[in-house]
Amino acid sequence: MTLRVASALDLAKGVRSFELVRPDGAALPAFTPGSHVSVQTPSGAWRKYSLCNDPAERHHYVIAVKNEIGSQGGSRSMHEKLRVGDTLSVSEPANAFALVAKARAYIFIAGGIGITPILSMIRSFGELPPAPWKLHYLSRDPESTAFLDVLSHPALRPYVVVHHSSGDPAKSYDLWPALEKPNGAHVYCCGPRRLMEAVRDMTGHWSPANVHFESFTEGGGTKPDDRPFTVKLARSAKEFEIPVGKSILSVVREHGCHANWSCESGTCGTCRTGLLEGQADHRDMVLLPEEMESQIMICVSRAKSERLVIDL
Ligand code: FES
Q: Where are the beta strands (DSSP E) in 132-174?
């Protein structure tokens, strides 16, 4: 779709929201809470952004973009180059972080800009939430906290805890009281990787079906000691080199081979693939410890050995 920027707003330090509409004013495709769209940024790079408005609204999509320091420039170009009235190529909405309709309760955990998909979930509840819910919203300081005004509304006070760490680990927020007892609730966590890993560690005794993660760090990011490695596809015997900075999934797709995928961030489970030989460097949020020897999430995970053979 080609959409026009109808308005733009500075929400917090380094966070800008954009309201996207059809140039002819027609209704947009419907979306469900937790959905995202892919946007071709002014730099030319495509980036995924969660929709943070109420899914009942059909006249606009609202995204919030963080100007990431050290990013490859996609989000930075949204801040520096995109103006009201400009048009952008935007995909139809997709959802790799869907809200379960019948939960006994919802526990939302957002870190920084990870609030965006969770905000659409909360907004979809309106005045009659389908189940009790609580939001734990963690950020560095008030100035960098997007939607603080919305979430500080007196009507939301019983449901929302906002915690600022000021960058001091000693002031980190203790999520254990919220996660200690699995009680049929569904946990939705979106934020920096270390927050998601902490939540994953604290929910080891929960049913995996009740714990959901979302992240847009495509390819899982790179680490300083990443090395290239080889992947062999067992079914076709094709073999590819996976360079630093590219995922197995992206290389496999570049060569026209079929693989299932959705989130590209190691959180949805769609790209789960059998691991037949080699030792994986697991970087996903999905696999259980007992699955790690025989399976791999090819959108983010890499190899500790020189070569992997996967069931593809
Ligand atoms: Fe979602 Fe890999 S595509 S985990």
A: 133-139, 160-164
Delimit the domains of the chain by residue range: 2-89, 106-214, 219-310
Cα three-residue angle 297-217-276, rounded to 5 degrees = 15
For 186-240, how does the pLDDT look when each residue is reduced to its tens digit (9 = 90+)? 999 999 888 998 999 999 999 988 999 988 765 556 788 899 999 999 999 999 9
* CATH code 2.60.40.1500 for 2-89: no
For residue 143, give both structure tokens: 């100035």
- The answer to whether domain 106-214 has CATH 3.90.1150.10 is no
Tell me if 271 CB under 6 Å of ligand 1.
yes
Given ligand 1 and candidates 48, 214, 264, 287, which is best to mutate, with the most ligand atoms within 8 Å of its CB? 264
pTM exceeds 0.90: no
Dihedral pair phi/psi, residue 148, rounded to 5°: -60, -35
